[in-house]
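Action item from last week, closing it out:
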Amino acid sequence: MLLGVPYDGGTTYQPGARLAPYEIRRLSALVQSWHPGLEVDVFAGLRAVDGGNVAFPPFDREAVRDLVHREVAAIHGAGAVPLVIGGDHSVALPAMRAASAAHGPLAVVHIDAHLDTSGPEVWGDAHHHGTPLRHAIKEGLVVRDQLYQLGIRGPWGTCEDDGLSRGHGATIVGTDEISVRGAASVAAEVKRRVGDRAVYLTFDIDAIDPAFAPGTGTPVPGGLTSREAFQLVRGLAGCRLVGADLVEVSPPLDAHDRTSSLAAYLLFEMLAVLASGPDRA
């Protein structure tokens, strides 16, 4: 089930991601059903439902997290798989909380330019869009050695920025390594290592190079190509995907719908992974 969260109160630079659910839905009209790479008719194999947007008071961050958690938990309770459309990356935390409550600690595939393990020391808030993985690790939502952070790049504040992730046994694969090894190869390794665990995919659009995805509030040069992004997601076909989110698309910063269109196709790739899941083999 698709669920929009039109919220960007956790952004630290340029807002606008609250407008993404509408624009991504609009561009999704271009997406058809047959996936030639995975050889699956996605919408014949899945009952895909648009659950609308979570309704919340936009200036109460705690209420936003609580209401997203409740809505996502209800989807899990109905036996469905939520695909959350952000919004900024802070909305991923309540979605991961709900997934972990339903399925136990998760293997998390985190595709992003940033580690998102920051604390409140820089921006004065413990729940901005650079913090969800910190909370997920500290709250025990992620199985030790089962955090895969792909596409990480750019300058850090200190040499210890990866300390929390490394301390939890995370696998961090930057874009330079992905370009050398190949995205399909990296995805195959992740798939092998997660095995039959419950997998949550959190995808920040800024993982993709701004040349392909200019519509995001925190662009970082040197990112994934759109093709590499598809390969990373597609390579999870066969995994037990129990939830996913796609965040940080900012339509006001976009150019000719490039980012929103790409996001719609990435969601289709996630649906194709669900349609190719182990319970549908």
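Closing note: The chain is about 35% helix and 20% strand.
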